[in-house]
Structure formats: structure tokens, C-alpha cells
DNA sequence: TATTGTTATACTCTATAACTATA
DNA sequence: TATAGTTATAGAGTATAACAATA
């Protein structure tokens, strides 16, 4: 692999990450559409691996809480998610994935991995290298 | 860095890439909003580094050509982009960035790099490593 | 008073289909 | 006939502001 001039390394990686993001968006949206989900519905379903209130979903989706109402409405109409009262705080509605919702989510994750435009192009050693780099890059602390 | 069981490596990397994608989306949308651009307008402006017809933008944005009309309308109203006739094929409209559009695009790229949630967390050696990996992962061939 | 979630509103993005003008 | 772009339409995502119920 060729070296990149030091000053422009960040710029080169930024362009790559932009391209990566675009390809992933296309892939994720395609998988969502194959399961009759809009992009936002698929992201909401992804984050509902564990039950949580509406507000938490808004945080994870980086959108206004008022939007979550409509997104969850459509998931609920399809029977993938349920709104349940929270006995500890009756202002809150807990979101719980139904059995069918869990099946759709599993299938989504399977399809995301199978046709992944990035993972498919790297051998196991490279995947491990990427995993270690991303573990550092994504660390919370 | 800890090893990941071979069978689940792809799955682990897939989850990381999903998280990476979400953080980048938040960052890119924030930069776009700081320049009074919607996410799609910012992506269109990014791809107009060189003049190109409407259809090409639709391809790059992975959306229907009919959507590009509205997105470009709003960029043109703001004076960031111009539609020009193409003498070689009079059905086509060539999109050209104005001087102001180029300035906004430059500022966008600068802000994307400066506050980048991934690049900021990696040292130069790690950035070079990520660059080489992504060069392979994104290769067209 | 503050917080959770909803409703109302207006704007943007989205795909589909029908259209115009060129080729 | 086929292609580039537009218009029309309807559904979905978006932020803002006002609201009800609860804390």
C-alpha cells in the first residue's frame, strides 16, 4: 500500500470514510427494503433489541421525539413492536419487540452480514485488523 | 486487542460498522446543518466537485432522478449551483458549482475532518493502517 | 415546575407514473 | 423508439411549537 503525505492523511481517510458511508447506506437501505421496512423503521427495530421508552429511541436515532411517534406507529401497525405502560412512571411507554419483530430483525442482521460490501472484500486477517482499529475508534471513554 | 472467535468475526465487524455508520451520519448531518444544508443537499454538493448532468447525481445519491430536480432546485435558489445547457445533447442540463457553492463545499470538508468522530481517535500510524484497509475494501475492480 | 409522549404544521425526501423535449 | 429531465402525487422523515398527562 502506498504512503500518503502526512498532512493530507486525515483528508484522504475522510474521503474514504465518506465513500464507505455511502456504500453502507445503499446496502442497509436495500436490506431494509427487502423486508418492507423504511430506513428509519429498520434502524428503530435494530435499536429495540432490548425494551426501552420512546425517548431512548429518539436519542439513538438522533431525531426529535415527535418523529418517533410516527415511526413506531407504523411498526406497531405491522405487529413488529408493542407499546406497553410503564408501572414505575405512567408518563412513559415501553417499546417491546414482538416475536415477529424479533424474527424480522434477525433476518435483517443476517442479510446485512451476508452481502456486506466491506466485509466481503477483506480476508480474515484483514477483518481482524479492522475490528481492532474500530474497537479503538469507537471506544466511548 | 482481544481476538474474536472466527465464526462471529464478521458479525462483530458488522455491528461495529453499523455503529460507525450511525456516528458518521450524526456528524455529517450536523456539519450540513451548520451550513444550512439538508443531508441530501450536502451530499449533492459533495458530488459536484466536477460538473455533471442531473442523472449522474441521481446515481451517486442512489435515488430516483425525479428527486434530484427538487434537491438541485433548492441549491440553485441559494446560488450554490447552476444548471447549464449542454450543446452536445440538448436534453441534458449540466450542473456546475458556483464560486459560493465551492466555498461552502470547502468549508463543509474542513468541518467534516476537524470534528471527525473516527479520525480524531486514531494516531497517525493507525490512520495509515485504516487508510490501507479501506483502500482494499473500497477497491472497484 | 419539569418531563414524557402526542398532535399540528410546514418543509424535505422518496418512488412511481405520466409528460416534454430532444436523440 | 429510447433517453434526460420535469411535473404530479402520495407516503414517509424532519424540526418546531403547543398540548395532555404525569411526576
Describe the secondary structure blueprint for this structure.
2 copies of one chain form a homodimer.
Chain A (H helix, E strand, L loop, with lengths): L5 H29 L4 H9 L4 E2 H8 L3 H13 L3 E5 L7 E5 L1 H16 L9 H14 L4
Antiparallel strand pairs in A: 1-3, 2-3
Helix pairs in contact in A: 2-4, 3-4
Chain A binds a DNA duplex (23 and 23 nucleotides) through helix 2 and helix 4.
Description of the molecule:
The structure is a homodimer of 141-residue chains. Chain A is mainly α and 141 residues long. Chain A has helices spanning 6-34, 39-47, 54-61, 65-77, 99-114, 124-137; strands spanning 52-53, 81-85, 93-97. In chain A, strands 1-3-2 form a three-stranded antiparallel sheet. In chain A, strand 2 and strand 3 form a beta hairpin. The radius of gyration of chain A is 19 Å and the shape is globular. Chains A and B meet through helix 1, helix 5 and helix 6 of A and helix 1, helix 5 and helix 6 of B. The structure holds a DNA duplex (23 and 23 nucleotides).
